Amino acid sequence: MPSAGQDSKGDPFFASPGNIIFIQLSEALRDRIQSQVHHHHHHEEGDDEEDDDLAQGEEHEDSPFFAFDPAIPIPVELPAGETGLDKLNREMILSGMLRVLSGEETLPAFSSPEEEARRRAYYRGLALALRPGIQNELTEAAILKARNGDYTLALEILGILKGLCPGAPSVLLNQAMVFEERAAALERAGQETAAEGEYLAAEAVYSEALAMENPPPDILFNAGHFFLGRRDYSRALICLRAYGSLEDEGDGGPGIDPEKRENALSLVREIEAHGLEDEDFREAWEHIRRGREREGMDRIRLFLERRPGVWNGWFLLGWALRRLERWADARSSLEKALELGGDNPDTRNELAICLMELGDYPGARRQLETALRRDVENIKIISNLGVLALKTGNKQEAAGFFRTVLELEPEDPLARQYLSADGV
């Protein structure tokens, strides 16, 4: 984990990690920190700057009260190469506590779990007292890193926040969303196995958040859409029903968005009308996404015997058949899905793959272009247009599609492979 302090780019808390040591604060040092925590000092221009970093930085009149316990040693992170405490400052103490709270650094053995819990609570209190705005600061940093595609660092920051504010719904929601974003990026890059691991991580965080006594509205809504995307309609239904049943803020409720409520209720009606919470459907999806296509086909056929008019079932059957390279059968199932209302980019993209393999290049192009108009930044569709261009001998057009893919996803391995091939 990165450590507290300032790195070369000016990002707070994320410099190179150093060594953690536990120290007993001297009375003089404790008094200096306590003064920083409990009092607001007004520094006029031209004041002497005799104090060190422990008394520098933004100060807050609303700093929370904190009672020091001299018996509890404080974790301190020494900068790389440092061995002494000559340059001890507030950031080194903050960094040490944050690393311990995040689980990166192991606490010394304690006499009981209660003592460890007390120690962690003490560090949380001291960290929040030393820097009252730290939760917002770290949250903003994590969001910025995620927006810039640095998902690893975003998740490390959120891991710190989770240790600092255990059980905070906003932290759990942000963590789940970053896992989702990283999974989607990996999926776009064709790294489906890696993407699946990230989706499972997001699912675990959502499950943790939903286990709270009263999950906040945003947790219910986002989790509902997450499970919807995973085709886990039974769990999506639970979350979306719960969101749709919440009262408006004016009625003493938590306050929910009317448009989101209507969206949730509309999805509930659709899931119920199509019977998508059906166990056979859920099991079919699980089998297929885990590479057990034949088992998945057995379950989805049982579903289709009961509900032959549900396009989602025909899509799953077509997806399984396509993965088994049964191109003609897959094409028939996917065309049935389109006919029954499954007109979306995923269905058309799957159908286009089958048509390419069957030699129907014009048909494949029509499907991909229609899909791309619906989702103009869909990397899988753009990549398949590049593959189709190669199959029809248009290397220049193919290169254009693959360059577009790399603009959207610079690390996309498929596009890099094709562009590095001779003549492309």
Report the principal-axis shape.
Answer: elongated
Class by helix and strand content?
mainly alpha
Q: Averaged pLDDT, please?
A: 83
The N- to C-terminal Cα distance equals 41 Å
Q: What pattern of helices and strands is seen along the backbone?
A: EHEHHHHHHHHHHHHHHHHHH
SS elements, strand count: 2
CATH fold-level topology of the domain at 134-274: Serine Threonine Protein Phosphatase 5, Tetratricopeptide repeat
The CATH class of the domain at 134-274, by name, is Mainly Alpha
Biggest β-sheet strands, sense, barrel = 2 strands, antiparallel
Strand content: under 5%
Q: If strands are numbered along the chain, what order do they take across the biggest sheet?
A: 1-2
- Helix proportion range: 55-70%
Which architecture of the domain at 134-274 does the CATH hierarchy give at level 2? Answer: Alpha Horseshoe
Return residue spans where pLDDT drops below 50 for at least 5 consecutive residues: 1-16, 39-63
Number of helices: 19
| Fourth-level CATH superfamily of the domain at 134-274 | Tetratricopeptide repeat domain
Rounded radius of gyration (Å): 27 Å
